[in-house]
Write a structure and sequence with these properties.
By secondary structure, the protein is of the alpha/beta class. Helices cover about 50% and strands about 10% of the residues. It contains 14 helices and 5 strands. Helix 4 crosses helix 9 (about 205-225), helix 12 crosses helix 13 (about 290-295) and helix 12 packs parallel to helix 14. The model is unreliable at about 1-5 (pLDDT under 50).
Length: about 300
């Protein structure tokens, strides 16, 4: 990678980043046997969870802050470029089928827009202005959270998103894979998972990308647990949009209640396939409308609705 007229110091910046560091001991990796390369790569990947583990207190604090805002109706917005942006879009797109989130409740913004999911959009990652425009289109509020994601921690799009969101009063999180990053410094909650030099120099879709995926999994999943989207470790807000998910819905109701198959079917039919409501009808012995009302009064938390039903 070379410096450009717009970023004359980019080369020197990259040379200071651990994610970009060259590993001379791997200079002949292309001459190794395929199985040996696979073993080497697998060993590299095994170091990622430990790097994430070092940042768990920061991750947990960020999750609690996100959940508090989402409980008030706020949104979770990821913003990144390249691999980081794609991972954010992936995590956001998986929330509706998994947790029955409303459209727009979890949003993934990638520099360059939808086309950047499959092709490189030149210059998009270098534009903080583009990030501001993308966020302005969402009309941010103080209940929203914006998570800037960047392996280097220096991507202008991610930093611009965090700075603009913070100025709008939104909660901000900066997820990077280098220490002392500008992205973490710009955010209210900085999370720096230092994964070190990559197997292939500068290919941050590898360890850095894996670390980002793990952290984003935590941010969305544990936030949804806090919001009552699960009952124990069951996805009681799953949206049954296909036959596999309909079968999963039946299994979840059966696991949560211990009810016979026929009773599970009756409960799901009576509640229009709403898993959480069906479980409540069976465990609290109430009808569908009563279960729906109890859940609404409990903010969607099944445990709280069960307690209220038994009071």
């Amino acid at each position: 990678m070379t410096s450009t007229p717009h970023h004359p110091d980019l080369l020197s910046q990259l040379e200071t980043l651990t994610t970009e560091a060259f590993r001379p001991e791997l200079a002949e990796i292309d001459r190794m046997a395929t199985l040996d390369i696979a073993r080497l790569m697998n060993g590299e990947d095994a170091t990622v969870p430990a790097a994430v583990a070092e940042r768990l207190p920061e991750i947990a604090a960020a999750i609690d802050a996100v959940a508090a805002r989402m409980a008030r109706g706020g949104r979770l917005v990821y913003a990144g470029a390249g691999t980081a942006g794609r991972l954010g879009v992936l995590d956001a797109s998986e929330c509706p089928p998994t947790f029955n989130t409303a459209p727009g409740q979890v949003v993934g913004l990638i520099a360059g827009g939808a086309d950047a999911m499959v092709t490189s959009v030149e210059g998009a990652e270098d534009s903080a202005e583009l990030a501001r425009a993308d966020l302005d289109a969402l009309a941010l509020t103080s209940d929203d959270t914006v998570v800037g994601v960047s392996a280097s921690g220096r991507t202008p799009y991610a930093i611009g998103a965090v700075e603009h969101a913070r100025a709008q009063g939104a909660l901000t999180i900066g997820l990077a894979c280098n220490s002392g990053s500008a992205l973490a410094a710009a955010a209210e909650h900085g999370i720096e998972v230092v994964t070190g030099p990559e197997l292939i120099t500068g290919s941050t879709r590898l360890k850095a990308g894996t670390a980002q995926k793990l952290v984003l999994n935590m941010l969305s999943t544990i936030t949804m647990i806090r919001l009552g989207k699960t009952y124990g470790n069951l996805m009681v807000d799953v949206r049954a949009s296909n036959e596999k998910l309909r079968a999963r819905s039946r299994r979840i109701v059966a696991l949560a209640t211990g009810a016979a198959d026929a009773d599970v079917e009756r409960a799901l039919t009576a509640t229009d396939g709403e898993v959480k409501t069906a479980i409540l009808t069976l465990l609290a012995d109430v009808d569908g409308p009563t279960a729906a009302r109890l859940l609404e009064d409990s903010g969607g938390h099944l445990r709280a609705a069960l307690t209220a039903a038994h009071d």
